[in-house]
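stage 2 :: seqdesign
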């Protein structure tokens, strides 16, 4: 079985639900024009209009058939995580999203959904995660920025969420934000090219040095893009630990993290495998976004790996991790 572990989806049912039930969420504003459907969460700036590929289920299936992908793990669209809503509205929004994702997966079992969570409130996020896992989700896709620019995943009041993830054995896909507040990446396409990596490595380094990854080791942490660059920086972080009292071992943390193959260079993929082990790497595409890898098995084939390594990366590890 070949499994793409990094995809995004806005099911057509969710678009319909937003138009119908969205007005009942007070701090959510719906913006619809010729460019498409955009949303404004609380006082945050409006999102980009949702691109058609997010909702084109038939097109996604056709692409999976061409690439011989049997299943795709799908989360929502990071622009629409809704963490800028009030806590109560955030919970209502996430339950709306999760209903649509679960319905899409039941209609087409080739999709395996990851839940949306209201991380603006740790207790609410825990409750929504537990409900999602009971309903059949395998975990959740969350933002590096749980409450917008400058916020952190190791905030003490998020401990109920982390405990729930640990208790349920949920896969937690920590997805970088498009805009993490770094103005220097707004040229040359760098918001995608490097901004997401910079954002993710800060979030993951905090979770490593704070001890969260080790403490909540039963939560399966998934950090895309070569574990957000941690394999490259782990030696420097180990030195940081040595000279910074009260910090935890980043080497142990890295040994517990999973990642994908979206490196766009087989030499980098080989390095990540050397640092993390092939059993921690899984196929990923980031569909439908242009920065992703739309022929994901090619980088695995080009990396000069052994057959058992290829089999594990292309699907074997994902089958176990996501209980497929």
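stage 2 :: out
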């Amino acid at each position: 079985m070949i499994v793409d572990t990094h995809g995004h989806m806005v099911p057509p049912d969710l678009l319909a639900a937003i138009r119908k039930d969205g007005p009942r969420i007070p701090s959510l504003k719906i913006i619809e024009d010729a460019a498409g459907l955009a949303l404004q969460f609380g006082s945050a700036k409006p999102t980009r209009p949702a691109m058609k590929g997010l909702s084109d289920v038939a097109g996604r299936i056709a692409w999976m058939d061409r690439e011989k992908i049997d299943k795709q793990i799908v989360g929502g669209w990071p622009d629409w995580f809704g963490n800028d809503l009030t806590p109560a509205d955030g919970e209502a929004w996430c339950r709306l999203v999760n209903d649509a994702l679960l319905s899409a997966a039941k209609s087409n079992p080739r999709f395996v959904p990851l839940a949306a969570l209201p991380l603006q409130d740790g207790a609410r996020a825990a409750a929504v995660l537990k409900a999602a896992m009971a309903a059949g989700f395998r975990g959740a896709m969350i933002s590096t920025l749980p409450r917008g620019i400058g916020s952190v995943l190791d905030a003490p009041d998020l401990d109920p969420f982390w405990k729930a993830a640990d208790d349920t054995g949920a896969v937690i896909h920590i997805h970088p934000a498009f805009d993490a507040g770094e103005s220097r990446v707004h040229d040359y396409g760098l918001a995608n090219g490097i901004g997401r990596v910079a954002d993710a490595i800060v979030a993951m380094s905090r979770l490593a040095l704070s001890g969260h990854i080790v403490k909540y080791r039963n939560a399966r942490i998934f950090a895309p893009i070569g574990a957000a660059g941690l394999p490259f920086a782990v030696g420097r972080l180990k030195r940081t630990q040595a000279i910074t009292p009260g910090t935890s071992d980043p080497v142990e943390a890295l040994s517990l993290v999973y990642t994908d193959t979206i490196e766009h260079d087989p030499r980098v993929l080989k390095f990540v495998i050397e640092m993390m082990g092939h059993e921690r790497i899984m196929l990923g595409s980031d569909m439908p976004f242009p920065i992703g890898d739309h022929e994901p098995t090619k980088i695995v084939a080009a990396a000069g790996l052994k057959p058992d390594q290829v089999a594990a990366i292309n699907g074997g590890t994902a089958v176990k991790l996501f209980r497929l």
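stage 3 :: structure notes
- The CA atoms of residues 34 and 229 lie 38 Å apart.
- Residues 87-107 form the longest helix (21 residues).
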